[in-house]
Amino acid sequence: MKTEKMDHPNEGIKCMVNTCHYYMNGDHCSARKIEVEPRNAHNTKDTGCATFIPDTHA
Predict the structure, then answer these.
(1) pTM (2 d.p.)
(2) Nearest to 49 by CA among 36, 32, 39, 33
(3) Helix/strand/coil (H, E, C) string of 1-56?
């Protein structure tokens, strides 16, 4: 899922994946919106951020 990258953090979203294109210092996410999947997950390990894009500068 490709989404707009903002120049400021998306408040309320904590992200510790510092290899993501949307990662900002302080464990913030700069994606305008995120998508978490799959629909029928049963626990945290079953979920994943579909918004993740590898950062080519990481």
Answers:
(1) 0.86
(2) 36
(3) CCCCECCCCCCCCECCCCCECCEECCCEECECCCCEECCCCCCHHHCEECCCCECC
Please state, in angstroms and rounded to a whole number, the distance separating the CA atoms of residues 58 and 39: 30
Q: Which among 25, 27, 26, 32 is positioned nearest to 6, based on CA atoms?
A: 32
Nearest partner of 53 among 44, 30, 9, 40, judged by Cα: 30
Write out the two tokens for 37. 């999947």
CA distance 9 to 28: 6
The tens place of each residue's pLDDT in the chain, 58 residues long, gives 789 999 999 999 999 999 999 999 999 999 999 999 999 999 999 999 999 999 987 6
